[in-house]
Amino acid sequence: MGIQKFDIVIIGAGPAGYVCAIRASQLGLNVACIDSRPTLGGTCLNVGCIPSKALLISSHKFSEAKEHFAKHGIQTGEMTLDLATMQARQAKWVEDLTKGITYLFKKNKITFFEGQASFLGQAKVLIQLNDGHTQQVEAKHIIVATGSVPTELLGIDIDEQQIVSSTGVLSLKKVPEHLVVIGGGYIGLEMGSVWQRLGARVTVVEFLDKIIPAMDHGMGQTLYKQLSKQGLGFKLETKVTGVKKTSKGVTLFLEGIKDRQKSELSCDVVLVAAGRKPLTAGLGLEDIGVKLSPQGHIVVNQRFETNVSGVYAIGDVIPGPMLAHKAEEEGIVLAELLAGQGGEVNYGAIPAVIYTQPEVASVGKTEEELKASGIEYKVGLFPLTASSRAKANGQTEGFVKVLAGTNNDKVLGVHIIAPEAGTMIAEAVLAMEFSASSEDIARTCHAHPTLNEAFKEAALAVTGHAIHI
């Protein structure tokens, strides 16, 4: 086929790529998008955020019915698990949502190529189509939005059966008797929680002395206690020195970071959840001279342009938190910039959420970061034990913490551990986007009784005026 020309060509149809494509098309640009998957949505929708949340809610409902309904006067009798139906529900949810993005591409007249892309030059891309054919495309602007892949650990070969990644752990055929999770971050804790609720014994092995180390340390400590109560086991300050498959399962060889004590741990499934890395292999970036950081990220300027004119990058392939919503914001801003409009991403107001039970959510600076920067601040803390709605729900584990500047009262960070922290954090993000003070929040009327009242109370607590503590 001949060379097809577009205004913009986007490599990758995940949250960064497909959102950028839709916004660019809305702004009148002729857009093509390339992805090796036949379904749109990238890792997030196909094997990441969405299917994991489907399992999270299903496992939570199972746990609630099994352990907590009776407290509400609901007698259910003996509970049984139908894992196949649960997995089918997850698959159907993913299928419906990917079809939704396909519809949006058609609605916005976006050309989609299913195949593997590589650069032939700074303005030209070769596509090895999945049907065996090839296609060349040209564009004034080419955007790399290929996302990320799980980080591999030396000496541990992932087979997606006994040793699984974040992809394989979503489709286990049966509940493991013992699941070992390598890594105490977002993915490991979320998926460990899923399988623990469904009946597995779960052990989390973490190299550092704490879980979720990048978040507020108080939240990490509270989450550690709550997950331990729920039955998750932890081996902190421990590294995995080797893994061996056996006829009965998998044996992990461990070593203490401080005491150098060696030990072994047997299980039937291992989840490797030691983070993710940018996916840039096979694109031919080196052939056109695109600069990468030592960590493998594509280096870009404030307009997301690489050192090669006309070549851009957004999402997980550039520095910053590997979060779908961060990638979406970058996609929208870049589309608007290329259409001649203004725009920027406020990286100081990007929320992060861990979907355990309770949930953990954060935006802005932590106390540890403020101390390291020498910034003077005040703290407002409100425990959920003082929240009427939390008490009525029977879920009082957690708190809301507001950090505000000592001199100007500007909100610098908000940290929440609560059953609905992922939803509650949106108000904090909006407040920070508009440079609100803690007094602004404290003087904003909140509906009663809601969990969000805890945010107002934490803002009041900044000046020592919380009402209900």
Can you describe what's shown?
The chain is an alpha/beta fold. It folds into 3 domains: 217 residues, FAD/NAD(P)-binding domain (3-Layer(bba) Sandwich); 112 residues, 3-Layer(bba) Sandwich (FAD/NAD(P)-binding domain); 104 residues, FAD/NAD-linked reductase, C-terminal dimerisation domain (Enolase-like, domain 1, 2-Layer Sandwich), CATH 3.30.390. It is built from 13 helices and 21 strands. The protein has a 5-stranded mixed beta barrel with strand order 1-2-3-4-5. Helix 1 packs parallel to helix 8 and helix 3 runs parallel beside helix 5. The longest helix has 25 residues. The mean pLDDT is 96.
Task: Give the overall shape.
Answer: globular
- Average pLDDT over all residues: 96
Structural class determined from secondary elements? alpha/beta
Record field, number of beta strands: 21
Task: Report the CATH C-level class of the largest domain.
Answer: Alpha Beta
CATH topology of the largest domain: FAD/NAD(P)-binding domain
Residues in β-strands, percent: 25-35%
When the domains are counted, the total is 3
Cα end-to-end separation: 71 Å
Radius of gyration: 24 Å
CATH superfamily of the largest domain: FAD/NAD(P)-binding domain
